[in-house]
Amino acid sequence: MRLSRYFLPVMKETPADAQIVSHQLMLRTGMIKQASAGIYSWLPLGYKVLRRVEQIVHEEQQRAGHIPMLMPTLQSADLWRESGRYDDYGQEMLRIKDRHDRDMLYGPTNEELITDVFRSYVGSYKDLPLTLYHIQWKFRDEIRPRFGVMRGREFLMKDGYNFDLTKEDALHAYNRHLVSYLRTYERMGLQAIPMRADGGPIGGDYTHEFLVLAETGESEVFYDSQITELKFGDRQIDYDSVEQCQGVLEEFTSRYARTDETHDGIIFNNQVPAERQRSARGIEVGQIFYFGTKYSEAMNAVVDDGKGGKVPVHMGSHGIGVSRLLGALIEANHDDKGIIWPEGVTPFHCGIVNLKQGDDEADGACEALYKSLTAMGLEPLYDDRSERAGAKFATMDLIGLPWRITVGPRGLKNGVVELTSRRTGESEELPPEQAVAKIA
Ligand code: ATP
Ligand code: MG
Ligand code: MG
Ligand code: MG
């Protein structure tokens, strides 16, 4: 992409209404524009990162054997009356009437809709296990939308639902989700710690929230510092192996890590030596939940069990806050100059800064770099505007691409360009081909 032809409405001033750094930076870099409270337009740069995050979520879900689909945003109230949640959900649900005076709602989540899909087609244990998921916009009329996309009213969520014959099978699905989530967040360059959460009105011990530690997080968390040393890394996992998935769950959840909802000071003190006790703030970027037959019983989602009987299926639901992740990523990756994108989600792989636009040699070298990066499947952002070098550098630092290649007549005389890492700030001079090779 050539910056002269792109749409990147960068702001110099920090917007006064944004309280936290990720919100400020998303506005300043022209990633989002508020449309109304808690509702945003995703401008080209923000949309690009959103798509990259979404892509990683898709890849990791499908790697785990989960099947993508798409359900609508608007739902009929009837299904929610069947499950009993139409009245329970309260004011977070946006209720709408259509022209025929029928009750509709903008989905805050999809348990009812997916259970209806399931029961319409599946009637036998032979079709299980099954996990379906989608990535779709949700609406929750949050009492206090704030922090930009972190607590929006309209937000993008991946929500997946498993259907299993037995509790045991459903717990394997739970573990599979835990593993796939660990991989997902790590690929984005984020550490998200599974913490024991509160089962809410449904109850049960089988729920974990994934939290990214950050001062601006809305959750209070308590944990054993050893947990921050755990990495999933590039180990191989067989998602069909009950033992392997269970092993990962045990490894990542055996140390104390709880949100304030389940925190117990006595257990904390008994289990964790004082020097390893931590309390901090965290951002909830996902949650997994086994809830058994709550919806399948209420909505009659049953299968024949192969022994002549019919049984309600065991279910769980598993969510990732796709749009919230952008805020979490920036909270965890920035400095006073701007964003520092992890390679896994960066909107462009590198920036090219031409120090002397209009100079034949500099322009030619930039074009050649642009071509060879593109030929390698990389996406460069070429700042080809006739701006001062300082302004070009400031924009690149603000939008936070991992690499910057600076091209100017002086370097070109010696056959070199400058390659700068956004994260370390270190620069080196090297021939253009070598700069390209380093980025690839
Ligand atoms: P919170 O505790 O922050 O209100 P939640 O527990 O109500 O979140 P879930 O129902 O678990 O949310 O939804 C799954 C994921 O969707 C959450 O882990 C979070 O990452 C994301 N999410 C929930 N509410 C919002 C929101 N208002 N804006 C952006 N993302 C959200
Ligand atoms: Mg909520
Ligand atoms: Mg929550
Ligand atoms: Mg939650």
Automatic annotation (TrEMBL):
SUPFAM superfamilies: Class II aaRS ABD-related (SSF52954), Class II aaRS and biotin synthetases (SSF55681)
Single GO MF annotation: proline-tRNA ligase activity
GO biological process: one example: prolyl-tRNA aminoacylation
Domain Aminoacyl-transfer RNA synthetases class-II family profile per the UniProt entry, residue ranges: 33-342
InterPro entries, sorted: aa-tRNA-synt_IIb, aa-tRNA-synth_II, aa-tRNA-synth_II/BPL/LPL, Anticodon-bd, Anticodon-bd_dom_sf, Pro-tRNA-ligase_IIa, Pro-tRNA-synth_IIa_bac-type, Pro-tRNA_synthetase
Compartment(s): Cytoplasm
Record key words, sorted: Aminoacyl-tRNA synthetase, ATP-binding, Cytoplasm, Ligase, Nucleotide-binding, Protein biosynthesis
Record's GO cellular component terms: cytosol
Cited CDD domains: ProRS_anticodon_short, ProRS_core_prok
Pfam families hit by this protein: HGTP_anticodon, tRNA-synt_2b
Enzyme Commission number(s) of this protein: 6.1.1.15
Catalysed conversion reaction: tRNA(Pro) + L-proline + ATP = L-prolyl-tRNA(Pro) + AMP + diphosphate
Family: Belongs to the class-II aminoacyl-tRNA synthetase family. ProS type 2 subfamily.
General function of this protein: Catalyzes the attachment of proline to tRNA(Pro) in a two-step reaction: proline is first activated by ATP to form Pro-AMP and then transferred to the acceptor end of tRNA(Pro).
Assembly with partners or alone: Homodimer.
HAMAP family in the record: Pro_tRNA_synth_type2
Protein name: Proline--tRNA ligase
Organism: Pseudoprimorskyibacter insulae
